[in-house]
Amino acid sequence: MLFIGLMSGTSADGIDGVLIELMDNGLRIFATRSMDYSPGVKESIESIIRRYPNVDDGEIEHLDEALGVDFARTAEELIQAAGPGTAVSAIGSHGQTIYHGPGDEPPVTLQVGGPQVIADLTGVTTVGNFRANDLRTGGQGAPLAPAFHNAVFRDREVDRLIVNIGGIANLTSLPADRTRPVLGFDTGPGNTLMDQWCRVWTGLRYDIDGSWAARGELPRELVDALLADPYFSAPAPKSTGREYFHLDWMKKRYPRWRDIDPVDLQAGLLEVTALSIAQAAAGIYGTHSYEIYIGGGGAHNAALMSRLEMLAPAGVDTTDALGLSPDWVEACAFAWLAHRRIHNLPGNLPGVTGASREVLLGEIYTPTA
Ligand SMILES: Nc1ncnc2c1ncn2[C@@H]1O[C@H](COP(=O)(O)OP(=O)(O)OP(=O)(O)O)[C@@H](O)[C@H]1O
Ligand SMILES: [Mg+2]
Tens of pLDDT along 161-205? Predict the structure, then answer.
């Protein structure tokens, strides 16, 4: 059974897509694609995120359609790459998060990316809007990847942690003992603060390999002030986004930020990501030995990886060591969630999201053309 997973992450750095075969004992990747957005789409995403909720419905609809076309293009390329006659059962498309406010009254989460457009242009049934049902059941609607991590990465002998470092970082604990619950939550910022600061001072989209941060000297006071934010010590379930962790958040928590050399500040932001992950890990496993695997773009940040290695008791690997490249884990999760949905199997872990029960995740869009 072949499924496509499509993802446009909080970093809005492009679309990731995978075409995979799901088997009883795991999955096999047939094709992968990373695609840029069409001209203007990235700017529109960033502008709408910045102004939300002060945005016209029409503007959101326009982006929804344009992103749907880009997602469909990615899916078409995957189908072509897999060869003629490839029959895809369904596409799972996460979409692009514009706003995530699970704590708002009423709770809100908004993803755009035209699942109906994708279904119509590809002719393949598409599952989208994955977070809504969990949110409606009292959950955070996030993170959703832990259920997938549980399905493919859990071991019977060793306790494991899977950490996805995208714009935001999220962690999943997979105890070897199957009677113990899987835990999962957003630990806080992943790359987003580092990316934003790096863009301001170097013009680069991100700090390649963390080389700029590696040259900085740690501003200890800033790190302490940022880590004192109550988000980090709040109990799970919890999830967050760019609307919470942005540069103004940093400036507010540490008003003397101008006194710090930009390169040192970058080192500080890297330290906040590393320490918040390490503290979350210690909160779960204490000093027990466990394996830790990193996925997401943060796995390519050499400086961040080496800092995490210092913090982890038994070393750090990327998900490559588990047979799945860190670049494709999230997209694979949404292919897997599409499979769950079309087979009417629940997709959430209530113990992770805080939902009152297991629910089907996603709405099914069938091609109308
Ligand atoms: N070579 C690299 N060096 C440093 N950082 C990198 C490198 N490659 C990728 N990254 C970081 O990874 C980020 C993209 O990661 P990813 O696509 O996992 O995040 P995302 O799109 O926010 O995903 P999600 O929200 O699904 O977790 C980039 O913005 C950058 O910060
Ligand atoms: Mg991305």
Answer: 999 999 999 999 999 999 999 999 999 999 999 999 999 999 999
Q: How far apart are the CA of 13 and the centre of ligand 2, in A?
A: 5
Give the integer Cα–Cα distance in Å for 331 and 15: 9
Share above pLDDT 70 across residues of the chain, in percent, rounded to a whole number: 100
Report which protein residue has its CA nearest ligand 1's atom 9: 297
Q: Give the fold, CATH level 3, of 2-142+329-365.
A: Nucleotidyltransferase; domain 5 (3.30.420)
**Ligand 1 proximity of 347 Cβ (cutoff 6 Å):** no
Taking the centre of ligand 2 as the mean of its atom positions, its distance from the CA of residue 16, in whole angstroms, is 7
CB 82 within 8 A of CB 2: yes
Q: Determine if ligand 1 sits within 6 Å of the CB of residue 273.
A: no
Q: Mind giving me the DSSP string for 200-264? A: HHH--SS-GGGHHHHTSPP-HHHHHHHHTSHHHHSPSS----TTTSSHHHHHHH-GGGGGS-HHH
Q: Does the beta carbon of 73 sit less than 6 angstroms from any atom of ligand 1?
A: no
Using the mean position of ligand 1's atoms as its centre, give its distance from the Cα of residue 112 in Å. Answer: 20
CATH number belonging to domain 145-322: 3.30.420.40
Taking Cα atoms as reference points, which of 78, 115, 80, 110 lies closest to residue 97?
110
Reading the block at residue 47, the tokens are 């502008």
Please tell me the distance from the alpha carbon of residue 251 to that of residue 262, in angstroms, as a whole number: 13
Which atom of ligand 1 lies closest to the CA of 208?
A: 3
